[in-house]
Known about the structure:
The structure is a single chain. The protein has one domain: 3-Layer(aba) Sandwich (D-Maltodextrin-Binding Protein, domain 2). The protein has helices at 22-37, 55-64, 97-104, 107-114, 157-165, 178-184, 194-199, 225-229, 233-268, 278-288, 290-294, 296-299, 301-311; strands at 9-14, 42-47, 69-70, 121-131, 133-136, 150-153, 169-172, 189-192, 208-210, 216-224, 272-274. The protein is α/β, with parallel strands linked by helices. α1 runs antiparallel to α9 (233-268). The termini are far apart. β6, α5 and β7 (169-172) form a beta-alpha-beta unit. The relative contact order is 0.18.
Amino acid sequence: MLAQAQAPIVIKFSHVVAPDTPKGKGAQRFKELAEARTGGKVKVELYPNSQLYKDKEELEALQLGSVQMLAPSLAKFGPLGVKDFEVFDLPYIFKDQGAFRAVTEGPVGADLFKKLEPKGIKGLAYWDNGFHIMSANKPLHAAADFKGLKMRIQSSKVLDAQMRALGAIPQVMAFSELYQALQSGVVDGTEGVPSNFYTQRIFEVQKHITLSNHGHLAYAVIVNKKFWDGLPADIRSQLEGAMQQATTFANAIASTENAAALDKIKASGKSLIYAPTEAETNEWKKTLMPVHKEMESRVGKATIDAVYKAANFSAPK
């Protein structure tokens, strides 16, 4: 009798953004590499655009084992009690992508991932998605321009403090609900990266975009720890290799994808794109720097200092 073929190990990989983004393309690359490296012993099912879960529900689903893999933004770990990750939301903490990767690819990034393990989560990789821009239906040149605006943020006490420092009213909202909320005026503006602005059509319902580069968007690719630890050692090793390659790919395309998205937004003529002057940027920085001090008690001064050191951060004068 012929031996019955063993069913493949299924990894459900859920995320909230479009397939045609750096994260979406990184997930697709991981799927291709994982299935090829394991000779079909692993099947990766991708669920983009919040098909399975909205932002807030994702982590609970992972902890319960309903999905095996996610790539949430780093602020999502705060509600789990791992508030150290909110350091990544501090305004102007990374001067460039090199500074960000000095943190995530070094001991600080590894130590942060270890803090997830008691929650049943294993961190596999950090994926970079570039710098945040701001948008609204009015020009945002100076900090005073934010006064009274309802600005959508993802759930993060740091981002809440950031918007309040600017005089705006922060509104926590699922990413999947943002377009309609902007279109209907439930919120006035938002922050995000160009690739997400383009693929989610945010630019269609926002007249003004400012290239503030005030924050940085990154994701942690994470798995259910029990599932991961239970994999055969050879399969796990093959998947780790696939993830390393997918991470290199996703990080490499982040800058070019965001630049291309910005070009497409400009070409649409629907949003007026503004690059702040050096004096305006310095004013934003001085307005937002108190958020760093304010968040020390929440994020942890030791964590903030470790990131400062690794990222070679210096406060504006």
